[in-house]
Structure formats: C-alpha cells, structure tokens
Design a protein that fits this description.
195 residues, alpha/beta, Rossmann fold, 8 helices, 33% helix
C-alpha cells in the first residue's frame, strides 16, 4: 500500500506516492499531461514494485494532481525532485509529456541514473544530439497505433542509444500502461530485475 506525502522541492510542496524499501533501487514514475501519480497507484504498479523489492516513488509534477505550480523550469524539476528525495541513481519511468522533464536531464547526466523507461515520451527529436551514444540501459515501450507520438520515434530513440531494447505493444495506443497494463508490467519488471 503506497504512502501519500509531500516533500519540499525548492519553492513547492510536491505530492508523492511511495512504496517499498527505501534502501533498494528507487524507481521514479512521472506522468502524462492528463494524468498524475494516482494512475500508478490505481494500476497496481506501486504495489507490484514493493512486492518485488523495489522502492517506488510516483510524483505529481508541479501544476498537476495535488502539486501546485512552481517557478522551476521543466529542465530543473526532475533534478530538484531527485535531490529532495535523497536517492542515488534512480530509474526513471517517463511517459508522454514527462519526456520533456526527463530526457534533457538524463541525456546530459546519464551516469546519475541506473536506467530509463521511455513510454512514448515527448522530446526525443529535441534531444537527439545529447542522447546519441548514451550507454544507459533504456527500455523503450510504445503502442503500435499511438496517435500522439508516432511509433517511428521508438526506432529513432533506439538508433541513438547503445544499450536499448524496444517493445512495441499491439493495440497499445498512446498510454500503453493503461491499455495493456499486464503486458506493460511484465516488460517493466523483466527490465528492472536484470539491472
């Protein structure tokens, strides 16, 4: 069962849902434009990670869910959250719009992370130069019929990286974790458990 709390991140009280053992690998879940941390709790993702021995943190980004607006830029937000959590080398799960928060940070400082789960994120074309040649383990998950972020972006991202795998889910749509939750969980856990 996830704990609900707020942590101070620069100028904002950030709402988070947390599960699992804090001294284990931390997996930070971001969210899409129309979503919040609530999705990850409702889908059972946070409970699943706790059961498998991970420390999971799902955040409401500033201006979403239960977190008020902040003066932080998208580029500053993720680093500030990680610093406030006091965790080292987390895994980042970034669906859709949250790619704008995660990809600039991960591409500039890949050694600060253990891995990255790219769930049809925005921001790939804008960060191609910085992403090229990165050896950080990437799991790239896409729906084959994504109407928001074309599946060609999965191959583009894969071609830039040196340690990535691509999973295309038939009928996954854009939020694959909502449309194909069990399959998404299976691939996520397989990826996390081999890190």
């Amino acid at each position: 069962m996830a704990n609900h709390e707020t942590i101070r991140v620069k100028d904002v009280d950030l709402f988070i849902r947390r599960s699992g053992v804090e001294n284990e690998t931390t997996v930070i879940f971001l969210h899409g434009m129309r979503f919040s941390s609530q999705n990850w709790e409702e889908l059972g993702t946070l409970d699943l990670l706790e059961e498998k021995g991970f420390h999971a943190v799902a955040v409401d980004l500033p201006g979403f869910g239960k977190t008020p607006e902040s003066s932080l830029t998208t580029e500053e937000t993720l680093s500030a959250i990680i610093e406030a959590l006091g965790v080292e080398k987390p895994v980042i799960v970034a669906p859709s719009f949250s790619g704008n928060y995660a990809l600039p940070v991960v591409s500039e400082h890949p050694s600060d992370f253990s891995a990255f789960v790219a769930v049809a994120p925005l921001g790939i074309p804008e960060n191609t130069g910085a992403l090229r040649g990165i050896a950080l383990p990437f799991l790239i998950i896409w729906g084959d019929d994504d109407p928001i972020v074309p599946v060609e972006n999965a191959n583009m991202l894969d071609s830039l990286l040196t340690n990535s795998e691509v999973v295309i889910l038939p009928g996954g749509g854009h939020p694959t974790y909502l449309n194909q939750t069990d399959t998404f969980h299976r691939h996520l856990m397989r990826f996390l458990e081999k890190l």
